[in-house]
Amino acid sequence: MVIIGFLLAALVGISLGLIGSGGSILTVPILVYVMGVDPILATAYSLFIVGSTALVGGVQSAIQKRVDFKTVLIFGIPSIAAVYATRLWLVPLIPAEIVSIGGLVITKSIALMLLFAVVMILASVSMIRPSKKTITDDSAPMVYNYPMILLEGAVVGILTGLVGAGGGFLIIPALVLLAKMPMKLAVGTSLFIIAAKSLIGFTGDLQGAQVIDWKLLLTFTSFAVIGIFGGIILSKKIPGEKLKKAFGWFVLVMGIYIIIKELFFPTGGGH
After folding, report:
1. How far is CA 162 from the centre of its chain?
2. How far is CA 176 from the centre of its chain?
3. Which of 8, 155, 160, 166 is 20 to 30 A off residue 173, Cα-Cα?
4. What string of H, E and C letters represents the secondary structure of 146-204?
5. pLDDT tens for residues 91-103?
6. Are the C-beta atoms of residues 102 and 29 closer than 8 Å to each other?
7. pLDDT tens across 146-176, in order?
């Protein structure tokens, strides 16, 4: 199962390299259901894995001059602060047993997996829907809606802190709509934002009482990083839009599966 988990880690990287987002949404389910990691710990591991792979992609984008560092700061600062605070203070505050409805007990682990499943379904919808062909003038000056960018940054940061997903599917539309940013620039910029907030958020966990299995974490991350290079090579041969839609359907099925499993069969899988 561990070998399967590492092979799936490579797939996470491949999908990130191919479509620029979405791959990180599979990291937590792989860690929990395939590798038997506790869901709360899995969200922490996911921050490190997602952050490291996004950093590799972000550096590549920066070399190609596809990163706007001013936006990284404007969007990144509230996002980083929110994810760090969420991991250090909010997650430990969530009670071990949240609610009991009849015979169903919603524990902290189940609640986080259910929230993650909802995020997966929202992400899948944004991937399945055909992207609007927006014409953006690359030479036009970017107009910043500062209050909205700051608010969106904080919201994405809290969500990242809770479920361990990079949030690229939320950041990219925000940059295109709120900063009037061209799509290719938005993808590169979002990778840097994801990398910064995920890795700094992970340091919030290092100050907690959780024991980190560094061997597992670094091996998983290595496979994901190898995968991202494979994805970049494949992206030149496979049309991204078709792949994005197929991946969206897969993420949707996974999200529904997690909801059914956590509500009706809440045993094993790291609980």
Report:
1. 11
2. 18
3. 8
4. HHHHHHHHHHHHHHHHHHCCCCHHHHHHHHHHHCCCCHHHHHHHHHHHHHHHHHHHHHH
5. 889 898 888 887 7
6. no
7. 788 888 889 888 988 888 777 777 787 778 7
